[in-house]
From TrEMBL:
GO molecular function: ATP binding; DNA binding; helicase activity; hydrolase activity
Acidic residues bias locations: 424-436
The AAA+ ATPase domain, residue ranges: 227-637
Biased composition (Basic residues): 411-420
Protein name: Conserved uncharacterized protein
Amino acid sequence: MADGKNSQSPGVGAFPREAGRPAAVTNGKLPHAPAPAPEVVRPTPPDVLEELRELQGQAKLAMKDLDPELEKAVGFTHFDTTASHDNLITVLTNRNDIHQLASQTLVRVKSREDKRSYLGVVVRGPFSEPDAIPANSTMAIGVVIQGKKLAYTFDYHGRAEIELLGEESGGALVPPRYRPRPKSPVFLLDDEESAKVLGVGGDLCLGRVVGYDRMEARLNPKDKSILPRHTGIIGTTGGGKSTTVATLIHHAQAAGIATIVFDVEGEYTHVDQPSDHAAMIEGLKRRGLKPEGVKNLHIHHLVGRESRNPRHKNLHGFSPSFSSLSPYAIAEILDMTDAQQERFLKAYDVTKLLLEDFGIFPKTAEDRQKVLDVDELSTGYPRMTIQHVLDVVSAYIYSLSDEGRAEAKSKPKTSSRKRSQPAEDSEVEEELDEAAQEPVAAHGPVLYSEFRTHPGRVMGRVRAQSSKAEISWKALSGKLQRLRRLNIFDVGASSRMKHEEMLTPGRVSVIDLSDTDSPQINNLVIADILRGLQETQEERYQKANAQGQSVTPVLIIIEEAHEFLSASRISQMPVLFEQVARIAKRGRKRWLGLVFVTQLPQHLPNEVLGLLNNFIIHKITDSSVISRMQRTVGSIDESLWERVSRLAPGQALVSFSNFTRPLMVAVDPAPVKRLLVD
């Protein structure tokens, strides 16, 4: 063939020249006509066609038997191993469905082999594992670390661990008796069904459940089994506790709950104003919310102390009543020694007798009934003031002085007729009668209360119940004098705390203790107001119950609870704790819920933690604290506790009695203004 090197023979993939089209001209010459193209398409042999038809029919039959429900499965249960644990199931999924088994996702497992259905939650994973070889093999490691050079990688699948919540039986969730069989399909629950299973419905929203785009952690504020069962808000500084409290105040007020806040730093004295914090405003915008202050805010501060919002329109100065405080609680809070407490209680009893001697209390039959009803482990003696007690203590100190002893010796003895009377009360009355006739001595105890009009009568009662140890009496006087100099008790009759008004539906009452600088004062005030609120709510509950009506729910928030109820204070103040415990226990039935807020949960004793049923736990970095909380709050699984030390600000582990299981929640930003505290 001439010039064969320029000729081109058609082969596989070459296209024949179109008919009627002239050949291309090469070097001015027409090339030789090409050889005829070989036959490319041949007819399929009949036996092969028959075989293909048979395979097609088998495929159609197989597709017909395939359950379309399995198309919705996101994984299948794996075989158990010697390392398997009760209530934990391993689920395998293909690489395309790994993202659907995110942590805390709720799933349904249908064990088709034994026709059982289970609900579970992803607690570990999802993890990615290679299909053909172990993840720790040399080949798998080499492929990954040579990622810059190799485009090839192994195909992989996902693995997740799910914790069984229960077995579905007759529309209810019951404890599982068995495990799902291997290769049981696993399905996702939609947001609506997940919310129903988790029990997160209600009008009061805490925030968005982590792992769900549209699910919110909600509570029913009218459910007696939730808020009145008491809550702990716990976490380190900067974890978001104060924001959570501010959000809770706003939402509780909107739900018509009477909210009382013991605010030791004055952070919440401006919650009637909308938030002006840029990050909060942006966060509210992302949640479709807007800054908004609470309505009906009232601020209470001690008389003689300042408030962090001094120009607020509803500002109330108050002065606790000494007579409302249990003498045992006073002794504990003042850290009296046993000897000092013994003398204090003796002076307290003598003061009660003198109040009747001077016609101060009781005056009527009704008053005498009140005396019989007084429980001094929870309250004090009516109409008694700290000055009354101080006057009696002064009289005791005088009676033990040289001058007092000399005066007692020089006093004339009673007649033989009077001395012959055996009754002790008669002897006391005689001595008091004589003392009342004596002129006021130029020297004697210096008295400041109503008792100053008849010091002889006071000395008569003191000598009738004599005592020793002048040093202990003087030490007691010093502690009581320091308490009196605080000038917080019985300052003006119009400064009494009006507990009834504080329990108005939708009212927010902030007890501003930011200007006290004394944990002792704070504890006295908190104990006094708690008792008053509990008694008032008890009366309201009884009245509403008799009329077939419901009582207003009350939420009491105690900031820096570790200062009020620390382990060391509980050991020193069992009476005070017993008061709180009594309020907590009775409050559950009376719609009175307590919220303890603390950044130092390790200082709270087990007795206090035992009062709590609900927890909002922000970031905690101390592993020993986490371990203690883990032992206390047994309903939270280990996988969630492992995340507590890494929580971002605003995130919290939330466990409420109405939730099926604890949840990770991104707490809503506070719509109210909160003062930042260093």
